[in-house]
Amino acid sequence: MNKKSVILLVFLFSATFIQAQKFIGLAKQPPMGWNSWNTFEINIDEKLVKETADLIVSTGMKEAGYEYIVLDDGWMTKERDENGDLVPDPLKFPSGMKALVEYVHAKGLKFGLYNCAGTQTCAGYPGTRGYEYQDARFYASLGIDFLKYDWCNTAGIDAKEAYTTMSKALKTAGRPIVFSLCEWGDNQPWEWGEPIGNLWRISGDIYPCYDCEYVHKEAAEPWSSWGFFKIAEMHKGIRQYSGPDHWNDFDMLEVGNGMSYEEDKSHFTLWCMVASPLIAGNDFRTMKKETLEILTNKELIAINQDKLGIQGFKYSDENDLSIWVKPLENGSWAISFFNKSDTEQTINFDWKEHQIKDELNDLELSFVKENYQIRDVWTHKDLKTTKKVFKASIKSHDVITLILKK
User: Fold this and answer.
1) Strand, coil or helix: 392
2) Per-domain residue ranges for the chain?
3) Does the pTM exceed 0.90?
4) Cβ proximity of 327 and 333 under 8 Å
5) Which of 150, 245, 251, 306 is catalytic?
6) Averaged over 57-85, what is the pLDDT?
7) Hey, which end of the chain has fewer CB within 10 Å, N or C?
8) 97-106 and 132-142 helices cross at what angle (nearest 10)?
């Protein structure tokens, strides 16, 4: 074998190794499920998980695509055991974590847990720093399917190195586990996260409001949570990093957590348009009918789960009317009109005056060249074609979402 052949083989082996740091193909579409943090924080237990699993099945959420139940911070005791292993809190989970995982699996669902790259989790429980391979083996022994990995108490730690180590540990443990990088976007995880994880957070925590900033003044070092529109517009130029098995994560959903009906609709729509994971964060046991209808809108979910996996983008933003578009398979497009103002607005959109281009993916939406059929995915009605000017009234903070098909 000549020298060039040896170099080529080394290069191919190295490239394969780099691409194989994570389990490939576990998140071809944005993951869908439920996480405990937004509503319950550390106040979680076995009963809550079982009731949530039961409701995902009985309410039709499983049928709509929700499959992961993820326990966030607070599932373990404050200390590791004498062997250095994490210990699920026996008071919160008296049947044991493995039995709870099996209960969720028996429902046809998948189970996830939380930990942190630092020495402690955000709520002060044992972090994984220095225990990466040991913890990965523990997760594999429980049979979990998803790991959310946070970024608290990480002073002096390199983000890429920390997440790479945990990714390799999960791979070594041998059980396919979706790896969620909850690094808050501080170290641009979209630039290095694809071979390491299946999704990565692009911001700090979400807050149940339209576009506010909520400052946590009670903390020793005050920090901010953000309204969903602020998060969606926080980082420009990152959509090229998102796609099948490597998603920009705009954080968990706040639908059903205190916003208005119109704001919940807009929040869910925006997450579908930007191909964010759809991880509900409300209490399913007290969920209103309207909330369930939003979360299980299959036409919106189809936009999110579209096989092209293209993150949508803002086309225009004038007079508090923000227009976002998303290319879909088979030449279709989704277009959403968001009323960001505090008053009702009138939409008067002449399709022929607009030529929309997705330069990143070399796709074009031309209404001069093509005529499109229009489907309203919130009213579930077929409308006229793009030959006619689109006219509609839209309430404050509400949204209208249309599918355009040739």
Assistant:
1) strand
2) 26-304, 313-405
3) yes
4) yes
5) 150
6) 98
7) N
8) 50
